Amino acid sequence: MGVWGEPMGVTPPAIVVLVTGDPIAETVATRGGFLELIRAAAPAFADTPWVACDVRVLDVLPDLTDALGVIITGSPLSVTAQLPWMERTAARLAELVRAEVPVLGICFGHQLLGHALGGRVAPNPRGREMGSVPFTSWVGDPVVGEPGTWPVNTTHLDSVVELPPGARVLGSTALEPHAAVRFGPRAWGVQHHPEIDAGVLRQYIHARRPALLAEGLDAEAIERDVQDAPRAAAVLERFLRLASDERQRPNSALAEAASGSVV
C-alpha cells in the first residue's frame, strides 16, 4: 500500500483510493482510515497494489487513467462547501468518467461524483439517515447486485437530490431515493458505506449521539438495530472484479457491463 507521489515499487494498474476525509477519531485509532476500511472489506484484492491519493492536499491531481479502478471515499465534509480541492477533484472525476475508467463513489464520494457530472447535492430533505437500514435494489446490476432487499450501513446528511443527465437509479432506502446510482458505463455511486461493519457503525452512533438526540432520533433504537451488512460490502469486490476483468478480457467484460448483467 502506498501514497501517490511516493516511490511505489509496484507495477500498475493499481487500485487508487481518492481520500476525501477521515473516519471519526475512535475508528481511526482502532481500525484505520477509509483506505484501510475499504481494503479490509475487499479481501479478494489484498494482493493487488493499492494507492492512496489524498485529494485534500494536492494542488494538481494525477491523471489516473491507468488505474485499475478509482474509489472515492466518504468524508465528514459537505460537497456543498465547494472547496477548491473538491472542485479540482470533481473536474478530474468528470474526465475519468468520460474516459470510462472504472469509478466508484462512496457516500461523500457518491455525492461528489454526482456533482461532478452535473447533478445537485443538498441536505437530504428527509433528514439524517444513520444505522443499518433496508436497501432495495430495483434492477440487476454488475456492481450493486441482483434485485432484492438487504441491509446497508449508512450515515449521512447530504444527498444527490438531483441526478446528472443520463444517470440511472439502481436502488433506494426509505430516506434516500438515490441510494445507488449508475452514473455512466463504468461509474457507480452508493450513498451507504460498504466498508463499514457493525462495530464501526456503533462507534459512529456513539460519536453522533448528541446530534441524533437533538434531532429527535432514537439513538438507542438505531444502535440496537445495527448489524453487519455483507451484501452491501460485496459491492466493493464486485466493482473491483469488473474493473479487473475489463483489464484482462476487455471485449467480454464490456459486453457484460453494457447488458447490465450481474457478475
Could you explain the architecture of this structure?
The protein is α/β, with parallel strands linked by helices and 263 residues long. The chain has one domain (2-248): Class I glutamine amidotransferase (GATase) domain (Rossmann fold, 3-Layer(aba) Sandwich), CATH 3.40.50. It is 34% helix and 23% strand. The protein is built from eight helices and twelve strands. It has helices at 25-31, 34-40, 84-98, 108-116, 198-214, 219-224, 230-248, 250-259, and strands spanning 2-3, 15-19, 50-54, 69-72, 103-106, 120-123, 129-137, 148-156, 158-162, 168-172, 180-184, 187-190. The chain has a ten-stranded mixed beta sheet, with helices on both faces. The chain has a two-stranded antiparallel sheet with strand order 6-9. Helix 7 crosses helix 8.
Pattern of helices and strands: EEHHEEHEHEEEEEEEHHHH
Compute the CA-based radius of gyration. 17 Å
* Number of self-contained structural domains: 1
Under CATH at level 1, the class stands as Alpha Beta
Number of strands: 12
Mean pLDDT: 91
Give the CA-CA distance, first to last residue: 27 Å
Q: What fraction of residues sit in β-strands? A: 15-25%
Topology, element by element:
Blueprint lengths: L1 E2 L11 E5 L5 H7 L2 H7 L9 E5 L14 E4 L11 H15 L4 E4 L1 H9 L3 E4 L5 E9 L10 E9 L1 E5 L5 E5 L7 E5 L2 E4 L7 H17 L4 H6 L5 H19 L1 H10 L4
Parallel strand pairs: 1-3, 2-3, 2-4, 4-5, 5-12
Antiparallel strand pairs: 6-9, 7-8, 7-10, 10-11, 11-12
Helix pairs in contact: 3-4, 7-8
